[in-house]
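Why this split exists: single-chain examples teach little about how molecules sit against one another. For that reason, every record in the complexes split bundles all components of an assembly together and asks for one structure covering all of them. Below is a record exactly as it appears in the raw files.
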Amino acid sequence: MKIRLILAAIALCLFVAPKLIFAGDYIISPPPKSLDQFYPPESKTPRWTKQMHKISGAFGGVFVDMKENDWKNAEDGAKRFLESYTEASKWVPEWKDLFDLKAAQNFSESVASHDPKQIKKASGPVAKTCAKCHSKNYLPVWAKYHMPSVKKIKITDPIVEEEMNYKDFMYRLSANFKEMTVNFSQEQYMKVFQAANHFQKRIKELRSVCSKCHVSEWSRSAVSVKQFFVNDDILEVVQDLKKDLATGEPSPEKFWESIETISIQSCKKCHLVHQPLTLIQQAWAESEN
Ligand code: HEC
Ligand code: HEC
Ligand code: HEC
């Protein structure tokens, strides 16, 4: 249920045409195999994505030029649009029907009228095909070709000093978190302290996995991704919590506030960013077995 809600929320943010969302039963199947040849590793570059830029540049260009009364370039763009859209329609047989070549031709020809009203009207049915395919296929394509899999990621657990996979590490981190809250409710503060110690070490170790996927910083004033979810502020919250425990009379108010901060700023926010596509990948892997 939760997964559905998260996906529905993502869907709502992403898609310009909400009417096209099949909200009731949004099913995410893997993209057709024939798309593989347009993405690494089969293709050197993500050719499908590039073709989209071609289509989109030509399509959008028509409207830019139309506004400027630059009809020569508008007509040129209309031609390039029809070519690139038609070409793409031949690439993935399973997606053939998601293109509307008649509507595309109609739109392309409408530009010769130099009549913005006619052109806009003719663009509607074309734009619908973009939105319909995107609302169905963005998530599958992102999950398959863009989101690195966590499968190969190993983390050395700092407490048991063993290598383990991401999920098992998460279970240990999560277990420490539970030990903290359960024991606090039972006023077993020594146990809370011990669990907080382990928790702190594990959160710190989690930083070692970021670079497996976040390979390079792209901006000049690069803020490391490690400033999020696993940053020093989170460690400090745990440190303060430990200090308060050491007094022997920790404040329940402060404790639960810290727990909530960690839970939202670290666990929840990281899960919201990283888990949706991972969950899709895992659901596919399971249905394959
Ligand atoms: C048959 C399906 C399909 C149709 C029709 C389609 N697209 Fe796409 N489009 C995709 C997929 C799949 C992606 C995601 C590509 C990726 O992330 O690698 C995409 C991505 C895009 C992107 C984003 C590229 C990026 O860098 O993330 C743009 C822009 C785009 N399409 C424009 C259009 C326009 C404009 C139309 C209609 C004129 C259109 N598309 C029609 C499937 C389609
Ligand atoms: C399995 C691969 C994977 C791992 C491991 C991973 N990330 Fe990401 N993360 C991604 C992808 C994919 C995105 C989407 C945008 C992108 O590619 O940067 C993302 C997005 C983010 C973003 C959003 C802003 C941005 O820079 O893209 C932050 C912040 C982030 N990750 C932090 C982290 C931190 C901190 C860690 C380590 C504790 C981490 N990630 C580990 C794959 C990963
Ligand atoms: C760096 C980002 C990141 C942070 C921070 C993080 N997690 Fe996770 N967590 C993940 C990812 C990614 C997965 C999915 C791993 C997989 O399925 O193999 C995951 C999976 C889990 C799971 C496995 C069960 C499930 O929901 O699928 C649990 C439990 C969990 N996390 C608990 C926590 C708790 C508790 C915290 C905070 C104390 C936390 N995580 C912090 C990224 C993070």
